[in-house]
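Weekly sync, protein design subgroup
Attendees: M.S., D.O., the rotation student, P.L. (late)

Item 1: inverse folding check
M.S. brought a backbone from last month's batch and wanted to see whether the design step gives back something sensible before we order anything. D.O. pointed out we never logged the input encoding, so this time it goes straight into the notes. Structure tokens as presented (159 positions):
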């Protein structure tokens, strides 16, 4: 039997009140109820990282989280993240995507990394994206892109 429940959360900095099926996964709620389709559904088993979001500033795979459990919490998706301009430009410049299916999850992880570690090493970048799968790029272009974005931000900060 379907039970509809009210849920209040902060999504990308804005208060949201939604009525949702109590069985929904967070990734389903984001896409179907909150117009945040940048969060992708891949494996639904926590393996691919396509559904990655930040919950209270922590990287989480939203297919492993019940939507009801984010009541009162802060959720950030690809649509709401700062730093995206530099990351997007770097992903384009360094061929950091091909089909693009993994890209929003990769960018969420990258944005979180750069928030906490503005000038990461390539090894730190590899570690940060190790929970996100890409079947197209071989990863090194993604590492190049995130590294370039970090260097651009460091240069901007010193101007
Ligand atoms: S859809 Fe969540 S990790 Fe793959
Ligand atoms: S660009 Fe296709 S899965 Fe990563």
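Designed sequence read out in the meeting:
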């Amino acid at each position: 039997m379907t039970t509809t429940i009210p849920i209040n959360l902060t999504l990308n900095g804005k208060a949201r009140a939604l009525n949702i099926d109590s069985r929904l996964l967070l990734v389903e709620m984001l896409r179907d109820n909150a117009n945040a389709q940048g969060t992708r559904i891949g494996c639904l088993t926590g393996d691919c990282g396509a559904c990655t979001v930040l919950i209270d500033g922590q990287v989480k795979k939203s297919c492993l989280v019940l939507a009801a459990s984010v009541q009162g919490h802060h959720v950030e998706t690809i649509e709401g993240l700062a730093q995206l301009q530099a990351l997007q430009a770097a992903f384009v410049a360094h061929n950091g995507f091909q089909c693009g299916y993994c890209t929003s999850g990769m960018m969420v992880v990258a944005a979180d990394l750069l928030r906490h570690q503005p000038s990461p090493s390539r090894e730190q970048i590899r570690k940060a994206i190790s929970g996100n799968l890409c079947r197209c790029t071989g990863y090194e272009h993604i590492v190049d892109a995130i590294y370039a974005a970090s260097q651009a931000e460091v240069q901007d900060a010193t101007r």
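Discussion: Residues 97-102, 134-137 surround FE2/S2 (inorganic) cluster (ligand 2) (CB under 6 Å). The helical segments are 26-32, 84-93, 103-116, 122-128, 140-158.
Action: P.L. to compare against the previous round before Friday.
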